[in-house]
Predict the 3D structure of the following.
Amino acid sequence: MSNKEVKAALKSAREAIRNKEYKEALKHCKAVLKQEKNNYNAWVFIGLAAAELEQPDQAKGAYKKAIELEPNQLLAWQGLANLYEKPSQTDVKGDLADVYQKLLELYESSDKQKWCDVCNKLVELYHQEKKYLEVAETWQKLIRMKQEEGAEKTEIHQLWKKMIQLLKDSTRNQDNKTGQLLLTAFEHALHSADTVPGEDHQNLYKDFIQCLSKFPHEVARLEKACQDMMALYPTVSYPLEVLCLHFVQSGTYSEKALPFFSRLLEMDANSGPGIIGFGIKCLKENKYKEAVKSLTEGLQKTKQCPAVWYYLAEAQMKIHEHRNAVLSCNEALVALGTPEGPNFQWKNLALQLKAETLIKIADADAAEEAIRVLEQIVDGSSDPVVLALRGQAYLNKGLMEQASKISQELLLSHPHLAEAHALDGFIHYSQKNYEVAEKSFLNAIERKAGTAEYHQYLGLTYWFMSDETKKDKGKALTQFLKAAKLDSYLGGAFCYLGNYYRDIAGDKSRARGCYKKAFELDETDEESGTAAVNLSVELGDMDTALSILNEVTEKARPGTAKWAWLHRGLYYLRTGQPSQAVADLQAALRADPKDSNCWESLGEAYMNRGSYSTALKSFRKASELNPGLVYSIYRAAALEQILGKYENAIATYQQILKKTENYVPALKG
């Protein structure tokens, strides 16, 4: 076959392909290859025809042979790209990317438009594969090409915005290089915007700041972006809110941050981050109740913010709302999710605070949970303070051997640690070894004088050690006063101050004030509540007694606060108000249906009201529960007599006289 015949055969092949006669085209090409086995065009035409005849393997082989012959010729590469782009071709995306890369190289100097088209296709391919770094680098090449060609500023701006769109999901699997390219795209888009300030520019700034907040190492850039946006858009609260939450979450709430929180609240008094900032300020200034109020309100207006839940738990702990503090720690831990990354430190803090709070609750279940929580603290086994907490949890659970082992180890390894001596004190106090406990608490106070709990327990040690130390003003009283001064929410210290003033000093008025304070701090403290009411009665101040009882009974759930219902019922009984007495005594019995004295008082109230049959049942119930209540048996007999049940009455009187021969009311009856 001559050269002329080869050209004619290739022309016939081209014609056949144009007429979609692909088999015919293959014949012509094969004839050429018999003569010239390295004919580039023949291999390209075979590739094209085979592709159309759904023979992809033959097509691929032909194109690759052509490429081998002429690696820098376009036709074979274009054909291979068309083949790989067919929907029937799967698992060739990596190969297609390589083909596009080669086409970019070939088009770069010859056809800028086609270069851009291929570049778009390559970016789309990388995006589907979630290869964000390759997306970013390829798109940047496209922008550079457009800039070199002198594209309009508006077109360049749109290209940077498109790059942001392409990379917006890349922050989920953060890799630093892609992140930096995304942030750079934002900066270029902001600088190339036409209308500044303007709505689109403002929204772009918001997106930029939101993106920056996902990169923990970009603190300086975030602060600058927020401040730049505030300068451009002084009436928009968004950058301030992000900045304020950043200060909170990063734990860098300082004097530097205060003006931002103040400015935010001036702009919007209902701003969640602003209210949170005020709450943290209150916490730092020891205004714990205001802190709890503001932080709770701020959290209702702000999405998950683990640091704020932690601060709320801290404030609740300070005012001894222990169960609420545990719930807040739980919220912080849920919001933190996994322990990795920047939240690792917050997670450890939240776990430790939760354990401390559970230990304060001081029952066996809470102690068991505290032990489980302490096990989750990363590197907790090497932290002496965490070990001391574990010892307290063991003690609360009644595991004395384990608590003592930790205590002895800590005293040897960390003799300067207050918590080690305090744990030793708690152990000896629980075993009533008061002399040893005294030394341990004094050692703890020497190392950490500002801890109210140590003073309280030293006071309790003196209170139970001996009558001498109980009465000595410089011992128990002094320690309880110090504890109350250091922690004005420590109800237990005020309760024991009340005990001291009532039982030792004989100062009923001062004692009543201390009990009242203790009860206001802890409404579950029945001892203090009862003592405050009794002392108010003794001092002739029924108004105060009733106000305490009314407050408790108003808040009480059914079946609770027996002591308050009983006290008020007895007051109504004494003051001739039998109907109110009946209602209160019934409420007391709902809390404790087996209290024989309460049944006796209820019988008395019914009798005073004239409800004799019901009164009789109440007295009988009282004597069933406690056969030694002679008065109830006598009252039952007297009521049987009033109701005309004479035989029953006589039998009951005789029953009394068998036990108590000279019981005058029964003889009389």
Remarks:
- The CA atoms of residues 573 and 611 lie 14 Å apart.
- Residues 344-361 form the longest helix (18 residues).
